[in-house]
Amino acid sequence: MVDAFARRRVGGLILTTISSDHAYLQSERHGTPIVFIDRPPTDVPGNTVLTNNYEAAYLATDHLIRQDHRRILHLGDELSIATARERRRGFCDAMNAAGLLIIRGSGEIRPPNG
After folding, report:
1. pLDDT of residue 7 exceeding 70
2. Looking at the predicted structure, is the pLDDT value of residue 20 above 80?
3. What does the CA dihedral 30, 33, 37, 41 come to, rounded to 10 degrees?
């Protein structure tokens, strides 16, 4: 897909990837500038815009706590993904700081009537 856009001579690409290996982009980019969002690239030159995922999750959780919410659930991605781990850590730290129970669950979540 990167190759297709690069061949169309787009002015640049903004990518959010979950892969830890970005070497494939080197041959596909054809000189097109790339900006990565939330995950720094490996083996490919490009700028990165990072979010402090820990702080964002902590602040969001703390906001809910300050609004008197007590039963707060963090629904996140797989913990093998660095951003998901940081978000989970921020949530847990905010809950622990407030002395609140962290609801842990496993299994499949289905929508109502699903």
Report:
1. no
2. no
3. 60
What order do you get walking across the sheet with 34-37 strand by strand?
A: 13-15, 34-37, 47-49
More confident residue, 77 or 30: 77
CA distance 4 to 20: 22
Contact 72, 65 (CB under 8 A): yes
Residue spans of the domains in the chain: they are: 2-49, 53-97
**pLDDT in the model for residue 109:** 47
Of 109, 48, 101, give the one whose Cα is nearest residue 72: 101
Q: CA dist 79 to 89, 101, 110, Å?
A: 10, 20, 20
Residue carrying structure tokens 């820990």: 54
Per-residue confidence (pLDDT) for residue 95, from 0 to 100? 95
pTM listed for this prediction: 0.69
